[in-house]
Structures are given as C-alpha cells and as structure tokens.
Amino acid sequence: ETGVTQTPRHLVMGMTNKKSLKCEQHLGHNAMYWYKQSAKKPLELMFVYNFKEQTENNSVPSRFSPECPNSSHLFLHLHTLQPEDSALYLCASSERGRGSGELFFGEGSRLTVL
Amino acid sequence: GESVGLHLPTLSVQEGDNSIINCAYSNSASDYFIWYKQESGKGPQFIIDIRSNMDKRQGQRVTVLLNKTVKHLSLQIAATQPGDSAVYFCAENTGGTSYGKLTFGQGTILTVHP
Question: Dihedral, CA atoms, A44, A50, A53, A56, nearest 10 degrees?
Fold first, then answer.
C-alpha cells in the first residue's frame, strides 16, 4: 500500500457521539497535517505535526483533538461536534524541510454531524 | 437562515485548447506558491510550485507565472484534455522551510469538453 490512507471514508455521527478519524502514510514523511474542506470556505489548515510534535493549531475548537503517536500515523478524535462541523477532513504528509509546500493528501473522510 | 456556499469561478474549454487559471494572493512574505488539482471524490494533488524569487516555471504541459507586483499567480495548461477537468487551487506557503503551512484560495472549476 502506498501514499496516504484515511479511514473511514464516510462517517455519520450524532452530536453526542465520540469517534475518531485515522490517517496513515507510507511515504516516510515526517510532517503530517489535518485540513478541513467545507462547502462554505476554502481548505483550512487545522493542525500540523512535525516529527510527532504539534507545531500548528489553527485556533481549532477543543472538540477536535489530534493525536500523532508516530511519524506514520495521525488521528483526529471527535466529540460533541456541531452540525456545522460537517465537512471533508483531509490528512496530508510532507517531507521535513520541504518548504515548497508539496503535500501528499489522502482522499479524505466525509463527516456528517446530525 | 440559509447557508451560502462558495461560488467557485468556472472555466470551460474545448479539448486541445490552452487553459489559463488565475489566482490573487495576499501574503507578500510567502516563500512558495503552489497549484493543486482536485478531482471529484479525491484529495488535492500537487501540480507545480514556484519560489517567490522566480517569475516563471514550467512543468509537463503546465506553466506557472508569478507577478509579485500585483500579487497574481496563474496556471497555464497546454493542450487541455478531458482528464484535466477538476477544481484547481492556488496556495501559498507561510510555513517557512520546515513544513507546508498552506493557505488555499477558493478554487476554480475547469471543465474540458471533448
């Protein structure tokens, strides 16, 4: 398996549920990202992890909790979400020091909050 | 109230024509500018980047032009093919050289007619 893999591809949850999105990259990269893509706004950076350390939190509400146990895996834990959180959540990875901005994206997890 | 989504610019071309997609950016301090392509149901895919000290860069069938005076970026696609139909995003990297902290534009829908 190659590239960036996200699971699940689709998720429907209620506002009181707790769920997690998973991302795995097989590219040997050291930086991993969560982006949010909704119909109302351009792609938005949520979190950046560089060598497992969180280096960016773009003012994301605490109901989104990221976890990066190693350089290959990234999770986004979800709890008490709101309907406006419904969106496509994209994971990406890049080589450390690759300042050009060449990110490798997964296909996304489509989240619907009821 | 009723939610309002993004109204993306659209470009419709005939197969074989050249396409030009434009983008305005805001941050003069960005080190790199990047173009991504997103096909339906997939994550964004890197096309080409250009460093801020350059004004033109060519790839396979694509050329990116950067005009820092007016903060304008364009992507030219030569001999456009139906497989080029997608949403195209420009992005700027404000993360320095350590990782890709990207700010995306709203996107342009390109439709190529056979």
Answer: -30
Q: Is A98 part of the contact surface with chain B (CB cutoff 8 Å)?
A: yes
**Which secondary-structure segment (H or E) carries B74?**
strand B72-77
The answer, for B26 touching chain A at a CB cutoff of 8 Å, is no
Residue reference for tokens 């773009």: A58
The pLDDT tens digits for B52-89 are 999 999 999 999 999 999 999 999 999 999 999 999 99
DSSP code at position B5: -
Does B1 have pLDDT greater than 60?
no
Query: How far is the CA of B26 from the CAs of A49, A98, B23, B65, in angstroms?
Result: 25, 22, 10, 16
Q: State whether residue B17 sits within 8 Å of chain A by CB.
A: no
Residue B69, judged by CB atoms within 10 A of its CB (0-12, 13-18, 19+), counts as: exposed
Residue of B nearest to A56 (CA): B101
**What is the average pLDDT score of chain A?**
92
Contact A105 B44 (CB under 8 A): yes
pLDDT at B3: 41
How far A61 CA sits from the closest chain B CA (Å)? 19
Hey, are the CB atoms on A101 and B43 less than 8 Å from each other? no
